[in-house]
Amino acid sequence: MTQEGPDAVEPEEPSGSFGDAAAEMANETEVEGGEPEPVDELGQARQQAAERTADLQRLQAEFLNYKRRVDRDRDLVRENAVFAVLSPMLDVLDSIDRAREAGELEGGFKGVADQLERIVAGLGLTKYGKPGDPFDPTHHEALSHIGTDPEVDVVTCKHIAKSGYRIGDRVVRAAQVLVVDPEPIDAPTGPRPGSARAEDAAPDSAEQQQD
User: Fold this and answer.
1) Domain limits of the chain?
2) What fold does the segment set 87-182 form as a domain?
């Protein structure tokens, strides 16, 4: 039982609560740890700017590569379309060449032929192949060899049967040609092997007969 009266002793109250003790410990920890290190905001900004610049340069390079591909594909499509249109007209151009060589390209037919040649040239079709051109298997088709020619040093187109045509660097049809070869270099002349020995032996045999 608890004693009551003037002589009763009251229990002592704690000097401080648990929250106060925790706050004091936190204050001591902050004092011991010191102040936090300052953040380098300028360095972070520079790093972010460098990263954004690299991203922008990469995107720009990808766009330029895409644009080049689109331009190349567009040119290829246009070239294929022109090739498909002009290929059937090569026979007509061959007929015009034969008429011109025969002197039959006159009057209104000559005007039409000239106009047609200007139109196909404007579309990029180029005519090539002349007598005297060095033979190139990538641009010429040799129909026949017609001998040798002392005036040439390499295989040369002597006669053009059909002109060649190309669009840019693309050959539409190789020129059909007759070619000549350079004359072979003659081998040095001299006594045949063993001939000198035969001549030396001849006098000896004659002397033997006299004996």
Assistant:
1) 87-182
2) Nucleotide Exchange Factor Grpe; Chain A, domain 2 (2.30.22)
CB 158 within 8 A of CB 131: yes
Contact status, residue 167 vs residue 83, Cβ threshold 8 Å: yes
pLDDT digits (tens, 9 = 90+) for 9-29: 455 555 555 556 555 665 555
Q: Helices 107-122 & 90-101, crossing angle to 10 degrees?
A: 140
Structure tokens at 100: 């011109």
d(CA 30, CA 158): 102
The whole-model pTM stands at: 0.55
Q: What is the pLDDT of residues 153-190, one digit of tens each?
A: 999 999 999 999 998 888 999 999 999 999 887 645 45
Element (H, E) at 146: strand 140-149
